[in-house]
Amino acid sequence: xxxxxxxxxxxxxxxxxxxxxxxxxxxxxxxxxxxxxxxxxxxxxxxxxxxxxxxxxxxxxxxxxxxxxxxxxxxxxxxxxxxxxxxxxxxxxxxxxxxxxxxxxxxxxxxxxxxxxxxxxxxxxxxxxxxxxxxxxxxxxxxxxxxxxxxxxxxxxxxxxxxxxxxxxxxxxxxxxxxxxxxxxxxxxxxxxxxxxxxxxxxxxxxxxxxxxxxxxxxxxxxxxxxxxxxxxxxxxxxxxxxxxxxxxxxxxxxxxxxxxxxxxxxxxxxxxxxxxxxxxxxxxxxxxxxxxxxxxxxxxxxxxxxxxxxxxxxxxxxxxxxxxxxxxxx
Length: 331
What we know:
Blueprint: H1 2-38, E1 41-44, H2 46-54, E2 61-67, H3 76-93, E3 102-108, H4 113-119, E4 126-130, H5 144-147, H6 151-162, H7 175-193, H8 204-219, H9 222-228, E5 234-235, E6 242-243, H10 254-262, H11 264-283, H12 292-320
Parallel strand pairs: 1-3, 2-3
Antiparallel strand pairs: 2-4, 5-6
């Protein structure tokens, strides 16, 4: 009889415990859904993070951005990252993919310093995916130094981690269109004023300078910045130290691009030396009216220029990108 009573007690306790967990889970999902319907990004503090993210039961994923938006923290990159995160959350909220299986949250350092300590973070911004019923793994931390934090890259990372397809909808930006219209108007006005003397259009020097300028702009990293949406610089929210150069070889800041552009003439000189050596090698056999000795000297000079400048160029890459495996003569 005692065994039956104990068995009955254990069954009742187990059933009540399961029902209690289901009630808690339903309350969590309902509250998170209500918050998401009001604002796509749920603002979390220490208590909310512990209850809705850290503590079980939880059968939903949380995409959390940890940031420091306060002006006192002087994190300029955090504001740009928050804007991109907002675009992703809004695109998800107003799309057909919106469910109660994935929620977007944000923890500001001033509201949730304990969360930063719990996750052992000392920098911001950081994007973390908290999968259902388990703690985040290393792959659930987005590597923004490699991929950046544009809305498109965030959506791709979320799809890989939470299996949710988000189509990004950006608010219309007419500044680029207006700039193109202004540029076309200026060029059209210039051609109209000079309609009786358009010889400058056939000037090779003008077109050569235009082409060289376009090449310098492209190789300076400006195109990369416009695609990835790089921040101008990075300020550590803990120490306040300003960083002009990214610590990763696969990422850069706009300020770093400007610094590289200042020293671009140096790299351009190295490339020019290699090209000049190739030209000498190519033109040496074609010289007419020259002795074989003079042709040989020209070819040797071309080889020496190619070897020296190319070796020096590889050494520059080894100095900038630690672990660059290639070198020749000059280490």
